[in-house]
């Protein structure tokens, strides 16, 4: 998948016909499977939310392909698109913004059930379905929540409602964009555990987007790391977090205060992350996009875009970094 956003141009650029674009996502690929969580990790501005929005088809893609069960998905509009939209549901970072403040929980959930599965449900069937959705996300007894408005619930309860609404479409995949980062630290684990539980019981595929690599280790089977719009490392979560190969992944881990904590102050960790700023995506650095910040950079790094190279003995572990190309390292040592 590739996504470039055009930048509003001034008169001079218009006259010179220079095209500028934000290279938000370049050449990202990933596979989601039912019953598994894939974490997409990176700092803000790395393009990870854009990947989720592309997969949810909230934006058209600049290039690339999205396949569901091996079939290329249609772009917006039509029955095939609606079926895709039901099967691939998004959960947003801010549950308050994603729920309409003037409508009750009952309204939100009923609407999700009707949009996707309007099979002429009787009143009693609908009531059962509503109760089941709220029970699934542990908001019980359901009648305590159904007629409340979003502002009458806590942040964690609202995120549970947003999850229930997504489940109303009977999805196969959830795209969860920082689903716990706006929640109080003390309730983050509960929401992640709920998602994990739902994954098991409903055999869901989950894409978990986060800037907190420690939570990826806890929650995800596979971890992919993004930097400046590109994927730089991937593999099973244990391997990537315990034996990171890419210098950027190491930086992410080193700058987290305590890799074993989940309930720590993640936001402070993000602010503390030293060693420079992410680069402009209008003119991304040449070669490896991380080279201006990389302590290991060699001369080739600012010229050639690194290819994915297999790492060590763990199958499926790769990094896009010239350090894993023996010829490059030998040349640099000369
Ligand atoms: Fe650093 Fe070079 Fe690897 Fe990029 S390719 S991460 S600059 S060593
Ligand atoms: Mg984001």
UniProtKB/TrEMBL annotation:
Domain of life: Bacteria
Residue ranges of every copy of the ABC transporter domain listed in the record: 1-253
Keywords noted in UniProt: ATP-binding, Nucleotide-binding, Transport
InterPro entries from the UniProt entry: AAA+_ATPase, ABC_transp_ATP-bind, ABC_transporter-like_ATP-bd, ABC_transporter-like_CS, Oligopep_ABC_C, P-loop_NTPase
SUPFAM superfamilies reported in the protein's UniProt record: P-loop containing nucleoside triphosphate hydrolases
Region (Disordered): 256-286
PANTHER family noted in UniProt: ABC TRANSPORTER, ATP-BINDING PROTEIN, TRANSPORT ATP-BINDING PROTEIN
Protein name: ABC transporter ATP-binding protein
Organism encoding this protein: Paractinoplanes aksuensis
């Amino acid at each position: 998948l590739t996504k470039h956003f055009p930048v509003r141009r001034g008169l001079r650029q218009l006259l010179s016909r220079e095209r500028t674009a934000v290279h938000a996502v370049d050449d990202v690929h990933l596979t989601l499977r039912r019953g598994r969580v894939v974490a997409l990790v990176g700092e803000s501005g790395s393009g990870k939310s854009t990947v989720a929005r592309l997969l949810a088809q909230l934006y058209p893609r600049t290039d690339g392909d999205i396949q569901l069960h091996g079939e290329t998905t249609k772009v917006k509009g039509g029955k095939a698109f609606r079926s895709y939209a039901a099967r691939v549901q998004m959960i947003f970072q801010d549950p308050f913004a994603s729920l309409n403040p003037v409508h009750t929980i009952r309204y939100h959930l009923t609407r999700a059930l009707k949009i996707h599965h309007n099979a002429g449900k009787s009143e009693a069937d609908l009531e059962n379905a509503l109760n089941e959705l709220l029970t699934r996300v542990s908001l019980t007894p359901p009648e305590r929540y159904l007629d409340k408005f979003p502002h009458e619930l806590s942040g964690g309860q609202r995120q549970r409602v947003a999850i229930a609404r997504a489940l109303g479409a009977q999805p196969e995949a959830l795209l969860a964009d920082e689903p716990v980062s706006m929640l109080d630290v003390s309730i983050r684990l509960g929401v992640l555990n709920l998602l994990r539980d739902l994954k098991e019981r409903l055999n869901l595929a989950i894409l978990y987007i986060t800037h907190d690599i420690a939570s990826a280790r806890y929650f995800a089977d596979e971890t992919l790391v993004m930097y400046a719009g590109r994927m730089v490392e991937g593999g099973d979560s244990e391997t990537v977090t315990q034996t990171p190969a890419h210098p950027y992944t190491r930086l992410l881990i080193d700058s987290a205060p305590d890799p074993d904590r989940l309930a720590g102050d993640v936001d402070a960790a993000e602010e503390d992350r030293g060693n420079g700023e992410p680069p402009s995506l209008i003119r991304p650095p040449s070669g490896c996009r991380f080279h201006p910040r990389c302590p290991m950079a060699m001369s080739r790094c600012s010229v050639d875009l690194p290819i994915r190279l297999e790492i060590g003995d763990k199958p499926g572990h790769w990094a896009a970094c010239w350090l894993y190309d023996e010829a490059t390292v030998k040349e640099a040592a000369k």
